[in-house]
Amino acid sequence: MLFTPATLSTLARHLTAERKRQGLSRAQAAAVCDVSTSFIRDAEKAPGRCSLGLLMQYMAGLGLSMQLTGWSHEARAQETMSAAGQDAESASP
Fold first, then answer.
1. pTM as predicted
2. What is the mean predicted confidence (pLDDT) over 6-12?
3. Measured distance CA(89)–CA(66) in Å, rounded
C-alpha cells in the first residue's frame, strides 16, 4: 500500500481488522502495545491525528510492520540543498 494521507483510512481499517482478528479489545491492545486506549480509538478512527511513532508502536504490538522503500523527490531535495549551498557561497564576500 502506498502510504499517503489519502490512504490513512485504509491503514485504520487494517489495524482494526488485525486487532479484532487477534481477539483483542481496544483496552487489551493498548496494554499489549503500551499505548492508551484513547490512542487505539484514534488510530482506528482518525490516524491522521496520530504520531507516526505511536502508529508504528501499535503496529509492532500487533505483530505488523511497515517498510519504507525510498524517498520520493529525493534527488530534487538534494539538488535544492546543493543550490542553496552554492547561493550562500556566492553571497559571501
1. 0.69
2. 88
3. 40
